[in-house]
Amino acid sequence: MTIPGVGKVSAICLLTLFNKYKDTNQAQITALVGLDPTKRESGTSVKGKMKISKNGDRMIRGTLYFPLLSAIKFNKKIKALYDRLLANHKPKQVALIAAMRKLILISHAIYKNKTVYSAV
Q1: Which of 36, 43, 44, 60 has a CA that sits 20 to 30 A from residue 6's CA?
Q2: Could you list the residue range(s) of the whole structural domain that residue 47 is in?
Q3: Total number of domains in the chain
């Protein structure tokens, strides 16, 4: 809960995920939440856009949406990432997904290292 934007409900949701899958790395946590990119390849139409897989836990993605919007306003690291992606002409939804992934990875690193969040 030391991360700006993460409240009680989202912290409980993340802690449940991290406790359930203790020995996971960043790529595995991203896949468990369903934020890993997947390419749409169907027959000859291989020009599809990249999308998130949505194979992971839908509840966690839904629970973290509003804390993400709060983190974009109040968390310097998340805001910098979001603003940089928008400045590079990425769609808002892509920037939101990237920021959500960053928020989850920061939370996972704090849980693994048993530290407190610092915005430095």
Answers
A1: 36
A2: 8-113
A3: 1
